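Standup notes, structure subgroup. Blocker cleared on the hypoxanthine input:
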Amino acid sequence: MEMSKYSEAVEYIQARIGGDIPKTAVILGSGLGVMADEIVEKVVIPYREIPHFPLSTVAGHAGELIIGKLNFAPIIAMNGRFHYYEGYDFEQITFPIRVFALLGVENIILTNAAGGINFDYAPGDFMIIRDHINFSGVSPLRGKNLDEFGPRFPDMTNLYDNELSTRIRDLALASKININEGVYAYLQGPNYETPAEIKALRVLGADAVGMSTVPEAIVARHSGIKVAGISCITNMAAGILDKPLNHEEVKETAELVREQFKELIKNLVIDLYTAK
Ligand code: HPA
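Run returned:
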């Protein structure tokens, strides 16, 4: 993707906002879209209006950028994200992240729904993503490096920011929200994994599995944005319980713990804003 495409999207958004761009971005994953209703003093920009932005196709995923205040903290939120399984390529999936980088975003909070692999997890738990394993086989940074964003061979040692993760843990504890910390395995989807794949992923060190977040995390880190990831464990992964998986269960669990998830994100954004 040429630099000019990112710049055109940036200029369009800046013109629509006409003021300061928030320093914190939040990507609202499956089931968290309702959080959009709690953002006030907002400007809502449908993706289709932003030059070069891809469009969201999955049911339950809206497609809009929301700039406003959540719990008094200025944020820029993506209501609806792009997945590889929808047919987008990695450049499209991560286009908004680079736009955020150019807009001056400093922190990004990536949320998602994930299957629990770790036997100690239960549906309804949360997991701070402390690291990931990219099982897609491809990096979203493949292709000509855009030096404006970051180096050709970026370090991924501290991809998920330690300080942000610690804050999330402390806030969850203070709110009595059960939260784990673990490794997120990224697979392309859209099919759920086989029981054998889940066994293999566990042996390889994964605690949860999902179909999003990792491309965005890598691209955000490449461009110097601090990354935090929070998974909602919506189901136990394939083969752990004696029942098949389905998207309904994922949605139902996400809905059950939605208030907790919202509380956590709200506390986090105001914490980040006032820490400055
Ligand atoms: N596997 C992959 N992605 C998911 C799952 C799962 O079990 N649950 C929610 N997203």
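Discussed briefly. The beta strands are 24-28, 40-46, 64-70, 73-79, 107-116, 126-134, 179-186, 208-210, 226-236.
Next: hand off to the docking folks.
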